[in-house]
Amino acid sequence: MAFTKQAILAGAAMLLALGAAAAQDVKIGFIVKQPEEPWFQDEWKFAQAAAKEKGFTLVEIGAEDGEKVQAAIDNLGAQGAQGFVICTPDVKLGPGIVAKAAANDLKVMTVDDRLVDNAGQPIETVPHMGISATKIGETVGQGIVDEIKKRGWDMAKVGAIKVSYDQLPTAVDRVAGATSVLEKSGFPAANIFNAPQAKTDTEAALNAATTVVNAHPDIQHWVAVGLNDEAVLGAVRATEGVGIPAANVIGVGIGGAESAINEFKKPTDTGFFGTVIISPKRHGYETASNMYDWIANGREPDKLILTSGELATRADYAKVRKDLGIE
Fold it and tell me: Where do the CATH 3.40.50.2300 domains begin and end in the chain?
């Protein structure tokens, strides 16, 4: 009897040891298009938390163009990785990414931006975690409409800076969601001015928005929408550059990135009124965890997982972040 009990205990210990060893053997890449951006740094942070919890190795890679993406996938294959999560710099790289992953025997899952095929259609065979871009945009638009009404502005005399980046479908859907709510609420379509940015950062948005603001010196009240917090912060900086008071500007970004939080922490209000916070925790932790589960246990992630967001302002951003599990 004692021998049997000892044998069972020894067997259980061996299984635990094998499980730990298996986890340590799993290596997962996490490739992002803009490693300097706070959003992607947060995704990496939460992905590393998953790696620490489950015992696998996470390899962080920044790949700003197609050539670097291809090199990153080959590098992961050479390292003996079994899969990777990617936010690609160009969704049209989809067929090449899928082929390169297959050539290196790597599982692939996308995050934030969904890969498209040569016809521009989503590659539905690749699991994806993204954001319901249109609904996020609608939340932005509603937040702006509510604040316009609260301030008692005449919509007919308000201008909207639409910082656009049409190369990215997610950007198109977010901005369209925001402007659709504005128009349905009585905002004149003629007062919505397009400000196409060359890149998805604050400087490019500032340059684009400055052109719009300078072209309409008669407009003294502005709202701003865009792909992310950086786009809207660029628009806000543009209004500041021409001397428009912060009280005359309502900018609502998307992401809840560090740049937005830092804006809220400034001693005086700016035109950056709010941000729709989308939690990088799920996008980092959950995608890495799902990839691990797929590799270690054969459980493929759902083909499409969409996350949502919540409007946060200077007054309540700490509570919103806590409710979303960010703090």
Answer: 27-126+280-307, 133-278
Is CATH 3.40.50.2300 correct for 27-126+280-307?
yes
Q: CA dihedral defined by 194, 197, 202, 208, rounded to 10 degrees?
A: -50
223-262 residue pLDDT tens: 999 999 999 999 999 999 999 999 999 999 998 988 999 9
- 71-117 confidence digits (pLDDT tens): 999 999 999 999 999 999 999 999 999 999 999 999 999 999 999 99
Question: Radius of gyration of the chain from Cα atoms?
Answer: 23
Overall pTM surpassing 0.90 (yes/no): no
279: which 2 tokens? Answer: 């939690």
> Where would I find the beta strands (DSSP E) of 191-283?
192-196, 221-225, 249-255, 272-277
**Rounded to an integer, what distance in angstroms lies between the CA atom of residue 325 and that of residue 322?**
5
- 159/7 Cα distance (integer angstroms): 77
Q: What is the CA 166 to chain-centroid distance, rounded?
A: 16
Tokens 């759902």 -> residue: 302
Q: How is domain 133-278 classified at the CATH fold level?
A: Rossmann fold (3.40.50)
Would you call 64 helix, strand, or coil by DSSP? coil
